[in-house]
Design a protein that fits this description.
The chain has a domain of 68 residues: GIY-YIG endonuclease (3-Layer(aba) Sandwich), CATH 3.40.1440. A 3-stranded antiparallel β-sheet has the order 2-1-3, sandwiched between helices. By secondary structure, it is of the alpha+beta class. Helix content is 41%, strand content 20%.
Length: 106
Amino acid sequence: MRTYFVYILKCNDNSYYTGFTNNLERRFLEHTSGKNNECYTFDKRPLELVWFETFNDVLDAIATEKKIKGWSRIKKEALIKEDWDKLVLYSKNYTQFGKPSSTGSD
């Protein structure tokens, strides 16, 4: 059975990058080494892996990545901190804690 990962990196400019991979160690090394100079994280190193979740179903992993990419910064931070009460609160009060204007990174 194959394993998939959804992960969040904290960049040196304090933005977050959310990604998906089937090899977390390899992918993190690609990000930190600057393998792809067109990647969002290229000029935002050093990077810190702040959260990840493991999946056995590729479609679940892809759906989770897309969902998290659409979240506000504070909602991502609640997930990273495993603060489930705030995660629920920020999900219910989208107008109060909603997504700020997007730069594509948060």
